[in-house]
User: Fold this.
Amino acid sequence: MSIISANGHYADRGNGYEHSHPGHSFRVQQLELAYEGHAVVRDFDLDVPAHQVGAIIGPNGCGKSTLLKALARLLNPKSGSVLLDGKPISALPTKQVATIVGLLPQTPTAPEGITVADLIARGRYPYHGLAAGWTHEDERAMAHALAVTGLASKADRALDELSGGQRQRAWIALTLAQETDILLLDEPTTYLDVAYQLEVLDLLGDLNQQEGVTVVMVLHDLNMAARYADWILAMKDGRKAAFGTPQEVITRALVRDVFAVDADVSIDPATGTPFMSPDSSHSLRERRRCRPGNGAADIAASHAHLAQSQISPIEGRK
Assistant:
């Protein structure tokens, strides 16, 4: 079974996830979001494609994280609506939403000393009543989450003993234990080195391919977004600047318009996806070359000026 994919990633489901239903519809209509009366997101419309991986990009303060909060029902719209399966998400019971939509915030926190297993167990909360005990279904969901994220051998380890990539996988495992069809992630690769970034994004790609999870994530790295997303939403000043495939969105003109950066956009030969590289003016070597005088002499002069500025006031009056 095949799905049309923006960049060929995760398009062939024949050996992985087979769709049991067309997926939950997730739609934003004429959305306006505000903090203390100040509009942050304006006149926003969006249809989130089911069973695909999407990335939201844009400069700091453009409303990316705010939009994600509204999708997760953590922020009520000033106007407009967020619709889950055609119904306003704000009108649905909290536990029902929590079985469909999972959110991994930018900086999640957990009690000190909590184990990986205890953290992941919290993902089963939406399925429990006040007096409900732990069930075989809970055990199955937890075992699955641990296996998929490769953390089964670390279930009894304290979360704060793990590496950055392992901690992020543990948080993703918590959302997997919720068994949601939609996963929202706010900058899941922040503070991770490139190896852990790839590890986390590979995991999300595998979840999409093998289990059909709809993934929507905020990313700052345009090249990672192009490499791992079926679709990209670019935002600027709280509005939609572009929406489409990586090839349609990551262009020289858009990077200049949205980020005010002159860049070259080529095709990554390894993946066939767009690759953004800032032009040569954004480099130390080029900036030194363009400055008048000799770079080494300028640096020496700067050091001498700094040493002079550090003379004490008393010594300066001698």
Residues 1-20, 312-318 have pLDDT under 50 and may be disordered. The radius of gyration is 24 Å.
